[in-house]
Write a structure and sequence with these properties.
mainly alpha, single chain, 72% helix, Leucine-rich Repeat Variant, 56 helices, Serine Threonine Protein Phosphatase 5, Tetratricopeptide repeat
Length: 943
């Protein structure tokens, strides 16, 4: 066997690559040229040739950055190589780097003035570059003017506000952003924010920085080089919510630029870019993680930092979840979870009422991303480290903090919480704390017992061990202890769920507990913390239908619940939303098959019983009361949570409200549609489905231009299309089809979005359904979609789509026929190909007769209009049609008695067209139809 030299093998690969290139197999050509490059020595002319060839293949594949990189290396070897310059110029023009492309084109022209290929490019780029230079000069002048106004603190506030807004607008253009960066705007903003008192100017100045970084790695690196990551953490440290939000947004933009994401929910990091800027991305995570326990920042900024980590830790490409555990992030979150208002020292962390809830949700999200046993063990080991460290201290405070941290684990990653509480001595320690006379220990022990009773087995264990303790604590003089003990009793009392046959306590106890919770909820003298716990107590008790009915008729209690939700406090979220889910009966219901029910009775198994007060009439009454009381505004405030499980609960309530047509307008008015879209795009599968169905129900009843204004009508398409899935119920399919039908009737942009999301093929699937309502909704949707030029092209293609629409004209369902004929009227009016597809149908004549002789006037009219489109300018089709009895039907239609009848008008037009094409001739008064037919047949034979 002869071994080839590397240079010979490289040349062979190049030649094979050339053959592939000529055959338009560009992917294979790239692979072969890459082998040749790898086999060649750097700096050689041979390598330069292989690089140029690979650049040509990359160019064909629209991989412009790769083309530029190969040409750059080739030009290092042969600086004025015309081919390398030309290919780089083409790639640079494609990525809109016109000035650089123009420089390359000029270089080619200097080397080879007779090059005919470069002349049109040079001319084209010259025009673009001149225009851009002129535009840049104008932009530069505007930027200079705005900089003078915005950063002059002695200038009028109104002028400064307008100037900074204008800079924000100018920064949206690449040219404007580049000019601003060169003008030193970043340093100016850095200095300004140290002294700026005007909130609007401050916030917009930070937005300018975000705009400079947006989708541009080079500019992002320049910004960070000037200010550094710590500067972003400085500006996020504020008590002003708007300032915190804009700084959080700015940090997200920085991460997006380095990872190739944008702010859309479906956006994901680019692996190549993430790998390239791994150092910067990891530095950002480290800075954020260390800031979690920063003792001097505000509670709002701490929450925002945790939310940032939570929002991005599920991307496996970033690998933030593993790194977070590695750099002791779990311990830092547990520190936040254990922070108590009662322990206020100089070194204490500032927290908000939502901080512990947000930290617990973040722990849950991190744990969700521990995909394998070893990773979960590392997470558990971090938790163990924290707990051991605290329990080694002999002081009481450490035990209290550990208990509070365990409570957060039970509310976050439940498996970890159960793992911790099952450790030897932990539950005993909590029960001992509950029996002390110290109200703080009693409070935290109660909270932990409540969180621990999360499953029936745990609830039973606590009934056995702790129910007497909770009853004793309920007699406490401290309301904070009493309300927590009350919630513990409520939770234990509710573990039978909505099964009316299970009652852990004696009859009447549940109502008494509910009344006690109500007193805490509506009492204006009680602080928000008391009302929060009262809401949580009701969240367990409202599984009882008697409690639901009594609560929903209690207007002050319902109003207090809604007002509590409107605060947006994340720690209130679970109690309020779960209570609302129960009132709406929006929880997951397991369908029981009759056969399984009989089998269960035979086997003497327990069979759940539904309470008569949970019948649909009672549920609808409760929904109406809640909707009219303004519950939507409360749900909107709580929907800011990053917890996917909580978002699912909120979506369930929204969907239940939208099940009643009369409440959908209220949901839209109070901002429900706006928050449902992100919930339908990200979260648990059930949560996304619930939110999508709520959107579908809104889209059916309310004009989409009102329900989903502006960009929102495009964003809602994906959730609706997701409901066209075999795993969704027939009702979900139907409602999605109806909503998409309304959206498809809006405009071309929305129709294009439906196409882009793969909606057409999914909608067409339901044309073949046996379910009449699904088929009808699908045909109606297609009728609106065929207004799109792209859909018309699809229907013109070699497929049976058009043929099937003609077949639908023979259906019995009148609504389906009307929709199918509507679609065919549009298709035949613009496409002769679609007209001729009528004859692909064996029973085409029967379809025509069904339309022309239809008792429904609208169908008759559409049939004549469609026939007119088919006959017009097509003698062959006209001859084929008029060989049949269609002419007699048309003649009969011209004799209709109505004076103004569109069917009559188009029937006459059809006969006139046939006459003009020479297929028939106008009859004399004494000339019979049979004579016309006979004459027509004679003419055909003679021809």
């Amino acid at each position: 066997m002869v071994t080839m030299k590397p240079s010979e093998e490289a040349e062979s690969c190049k030649n094979q690559g050339n053959e592939c290139f000529k055959s338009n197999n560009f992917e294979e050509a790239v692979s072969l040229y890459s082998k040749a490059v790898n086999l060649s020595d750097k700096g050689t002319r041979e390598r330069a040739t292989y690089l140029k060839n690979r650049a040509a293949a990359y160019l064909k594949l629209n991989k412009f950055n790769e083309t530029i990189a190969d040409c750059d290396e080739a030009l290092e070897v042969i600086p004025e190589d015309p081919k390398a310059l030309y290919r780089r110029a083409q790639a640079l023009e494609s990525v809109k780097k016109f000035e650089e492309a123009y420089r390359d084109a000029q270089s080619i022209f200097k080397v080879d003035p007779t090059n005919k290929a470069i002349q049109p490019m040079l001319s084209r780029l010259h025009t673009i570059v001149q225009e851009r230079a002129k535009h840049n000069a104008q932009t530069s002048s505007k930027v200079e003017q705005m900089l003078k106004l915005a950063f002059n603190v002695s200038e009028q506030t109104e002028k400064r506000e307008k100037a900074i807004t204008n800079l924000l607008v100018l920064g949206k253009e690449n040219s404007g952003a580049d000019i601003m960066l060169k003008s030193g705007i970043v340093h100016k903003i850095q200095q300004l924010l140290k002294v700026e008192k005007n909130s609007e100017i401050y916030v917009n100045a930070v937005r300018v920085i975000a705009q400079l970084c947006k989708r541009n790695v080079d500019r992002t690196q320049q910004v960070i080089k000037i200010v550094g990551i710590p500067w972003f953490l400085e500006i996020i440290d504020s008590d002003n919510e708007e300032q915190v939000n804009v700084a959080q947004y700015c940090l997200q933009i920085v991460l997006n630029s380095f990872s190739g994401m944008d702010n859309k929910k479906e956006s994901k990091p680019d692996p190549a870019l993430t790998n390239q800027y791994k150092g910067e991305i990891d530095t950002l995570l480290t800075c954020l993680t260390y800031s979690i326990t920063n003792r001097v920042i505000t509670g709002l900024s701490r929450d925002a930092i945790i939310e940032l980590i939570m929002r991005n830790c599920h991307y496996s490409t970033l690998n933030w979840a593993d790194k977070f555990v590695e750099i002791r992030g779990v311990q830092r979150l547990l520190e936040v979870c254990s922070e108590l208002e009662e322990y206020k020292y100089e070194s204490a962390m500032n927290i908000t009422p939502s901080s512990r809830t947000i930290a617990a949700a973040c722990l849950a999200r991190i744990y969700e991303n521990m995909f394998y046993d070893e990773a979960r063990e590392r997470f558990n080991h971090s938790v163990d480290d924290y707990i051991k460290d605290k329990l080694l201290s002999p002081d009481l405070e450490s035990k209290v903090r550990v208990t509070v941290a365990i409570t957060s684990l039970l509310r976050g990653p439940l498996d970890v919480g159960n793992y911790v509480i099952s450790k030897e001595g932990i539950m005993e320690m909590i029960l001992v704390m509950a029996q002390t006379e110290d109200s703080l220990q009693q409070k935290v022990a109660c909270e932990c017992l409540i969180a621990a009773a999360s499953k029936k087995d745990k609830a039973r264990a606590i009934i056995n061990k702790g129910v007497d303790i909770l009853k004793k604590l309920y007699t406490s003089k401290d309301d904070a202890v009493r309300v927590r003990a009350l919630v513990g009793l409520c939770k234990i009392g509710s573990f039978g769920g909505d099964d009316a046959s299970i009652r852990p306590f004696a009859d009447g106890s549940t109502k008494k507990l509910a009344e006690a919770c109500r007193k805490f909820l509506v009492n204006p003298a009680k602080d928000k913390d008391m009302r929060k716990w009262a809401a949580e107590g009701l969240s367990y008790l409202t599984l009882d239908a008697d409690v639901k009915e009594k609560l929903v008729d209690d207007k002050p209690a319902i109003q207090s619940l809604i007002e509590l939700a409107k605060t947006g406090d994340q720690s209130c979220l679970y109690g309020v939303v779960t209570t609302l889910v129960n009132l709406c009966n929006a929880y997951e219901k397991q369908e029981v098959m009759p056969e399984m029910l009989e089998l269960a009775k035979f086997a003497k198994h327990h069979i759940p019983e539904q309470h008569e007060l949970d019948d649909p009439d009672f549920v609808n009454k409760r929904l109406t009361i809640l909707g009219k009381a303004g519950v939507t505004s409360g749900l909107v405030a709580l929907s800011k949570t990053e917890s996917h499980n909580s978002r699912e609960l909120i979506a369930r309530v929204f969907n239940a409200l939208c099940s009643l047509q009369e409440l959908r307008g209220l949901v839209v008015q109070q901002g429900g549609a706006k928050v449902l879209i992100p919930m339908a795009l990200e979260g648990t599968n059930n949560g996304k489905k619930q939110a999508a169905q709520a959107l579908a129900r809104i889209g059916i009843t309310i004009n989409p231009e009102v329900a989903f204004p502006g960009q929102r009508n495009l964003e809602v398409v994906r959730p609706l299309v997701s409901l066209l899935h075999p795993e969704c119920t027939a009702l979900e399919n139907f409602e999605a089809l109806m909503a998409l039908c309304n959206l498809a009737g809006m405009n071309e942009t929305t129709r294009n979005r439906i196409l882009k999301e793969g909606g057409l093929s999914k909608i067409e699937h339901y044309l073949y359904e046996d379910h009449l309502m699904l088929q009808r909704a699908a045909v109606q949707c297609i009728c609106n979609l065929v207004q799109s030029e792209d859909v018309i092209k699809i229907y013109e293609s070699e497929s049976d789509r058009c043929k099937y629409l003609y077949m639908l004209c023979q259906e019995e369902d009148m609504e389906s026929i009307i929709a199918a004929t509507g679609a065919l009227c549009i298709l035949t009016s613009v496409s002769k190909k679609c007209c001729r597809k009528l004859f692909d149908l064996q029973s085409w004549l029967e379809s025509l007769r069904c339309l022309l002789a239809n008792p429904n006037k609208e169908v008759q009219y559409r049939g004549t209009y469609m026939l007119y489109n088919i006959l017009k300018d097509d003698k062959d089709s006209a001859a084929k049609i008029f060989e049949t009895d269609v002419m007699e039907i048309l003649m009969a239609l011209t004799k209709l008695e109505e004076v103004e009848n569109k069917t009559k008008e188009f029937a006459k037009k059809c006969l006139s067209v046939a006459e003009e094409l020479g297929v028939i001739r106008k009859p004399d008064e004494n000339f019979s139809l049979e004579a016309i037919r006979q004459e027509h047949n004679d003419v055909e034979e003679n021809e």
